Amino acid sequence: MEGIIVKGIAGFYYVKVDNEIIECKARGKFRHTELTPMVGDRVKIAMQGKKGVIEGVNQRSSELLRPPVANVTQAYVIFTLKDPDLNLDLLNRFIILCEFNNIRPIICFNKVDLADINELNTTAEMFEKASYQVHYLNAREGIGLSHLENMLEDNVTVLCGPSGVGKSTILNRLTGKELMKTGEISEKLGRGKHTTRHCELIEVYKGYIVDTPGFSSLSMDFITKEKLQLCFPEFDDHMDNCKFTGCMHYKEPSCAVKEAVEDKIIAKERYDFYVKTLEEILNGRNKR
Ligand SMILES: Nc1nc2c(ncn2[C@@H]2O[C@H](COP(=O)(O)OP(=O)(O)O)[C@@H](O)[C@H]2O)c(=O)[nH]1
Ligand SMILES: [Mg+2]
Ligand SMILES: [Zn+2]
């Protein structure tokens, strides 16, 4: 039988097969290989009485490590302009993480009720120019969520973004349940903030969704300088026209990417973020 791992707790995997959840263990051989089944994995199982044994794991289309989920197809990347203030650097980092992992980022600005509309439009335009979808939300009032609902079908969607932007509010709205506590702030307690301990796929609108704990920084140590430029879709149409093959679009002359920045076809803020990240990689500062 084939199914999808929707939850993993303490060595047990909960595999959804048709409309049933079957508690499974992994076959012993997995312990001797690199491969450990993850939530999101499509697996082959055999039954032993009422319990199952995972016999094989299908190839993954993507593999996220934080949260550990396989086969995520898209990310709702949630940010706000106000409360908390927009951290553009972190938003760009999330997008790189998605691009690098073969996950489609969908940018969502929540709490538009608090945002300056001009600032919001300018920011959205910067990402739309780079070919990304941008959505405006007011999750508290349930505004703008129908687009997100419609895109869930046939996808495994991860909800990500910093703390306090409304991820749990959005998840509760999309699932129609109070699955997550919202507005829990315990900065003073340090690690006391609500975090999702074991991640779980939640079935909704013929797709799956997974919540992530908010985080406030994201290291770029997973990426090389050669791969970095491939994570900027707005460079695609230009980089073949650079004079030098292997152009890093940095200090080289006759660089078509830099020309596109000057012509305002590529947003300068995005290019500046590229250069900053490239320099981090070149200087080894992206290493832990
Ligand atoms: N003004 C406003 N507040 C919101 C909106 N969405 C969520 N909030 C509030 O923002 C706070 C943090 O929301 P929460 O869902 O816990 O954020 P999370 O940390 O990303 O999971 C809560 O007090 C929510 O009620 C919104 O669209 N507008
Ligand atoms: Mg939350
Ligand atoms: Zn170039």
Bound molecules: guanosine-5'-diphosphate, magnesium ion, zinc ion
Shape summary: globular
Can you identify the CATH superfamily of the largest domain?
Answer: P-loop containing nucleotide triphosphate hydrolases
Count of DSSP E strands? 13
Q: Which bin fits the share of residues in helices?
A: 10-25%
Q: What string, H for helix and E for strand, traces the elements in order?
A: EEEEEEEEHEHEHEHEEHHHH
Number of domains: 3
- Estimate the mean pLDDT confidence: 90
Estimated structural class: alpha/beta
What's the Cα radius of gyration? 21 Å
CATH fold-level topology of the largest domain = Rossmann fold
The low-confidence parts are 185-196
In DSSP terms, counting alpha (H) and pi (I) runs of 4 or more, how many helices?
A: 8
Widest sheet: strand order? Answer: 10-9-8-11-13-12
Level-2 CATH architecture of the largest domain = 3-Layer(aba) Sandwich
Span from first to last CA? 42 Å
Largest beta-sheet characterization? 6 strands, mixed
Protein name: Small ribosomal subunit biogenesis GTPase RsgA
Organism: Clostridium omnivorum
Binding site for GTP: 110-113, 161-169
Binding site for Zn(2+): 242, 247, 249, 255
Structure report:
There is one protein chain. With 288 residues, the protein is an alpha/beta fold. The protein folds into 3 domains: 2-57, OB fold (Dihydrolipoamide Acetyltransferase, E2P); 63-211, 3-Layer(aba) Sandwich (Rossmann fold), CATH 3.40.50; 225-282, Ribonucleotide Reductase Protein R1, domain 1. Helix content is 25%, strand content 25%. The protein has a 6-stranded mixed beta sheet, with helices on both faces. Strands 1-2-3-5-4 form a 5-stranded mixed β-barrel. It has a two-stranded antiparallel ribbon with strand order 6-7. Guanosine-5'-diphosphate binds at residues 110-111, 113-114, 138-140, 163-169, 182-183, 214.
